[in-house]
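Re: the request from the purification team.
They wanted to know what the chain is likely to look like in 3D before they choose a buffer screen. I agreed to run a prediction and write the result into the notebook, where they can find it.
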Amino acid sequence: MSEKRPPRPAARPPVPGAAGVQLVSSEVLLPAGRPLHIEHRGEIYTLRRTRSGKLILTK
């Protein structure tokens, strides 16, 4: 006899229109509140989290 298992819930609901798009948590990018420096086309940008939890990207 085979037992029926309940369906496993998805880890996260799919993001509309995001097929093939990578999702990264801000907690991974900004551990312990440290800023992240991003190089794009020879320019350096800084991504940081504010005290209120918002994200700010500056050049």
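For the purification team: The longest strand covers residues 43-49.
Please add any questions underneath this entry.
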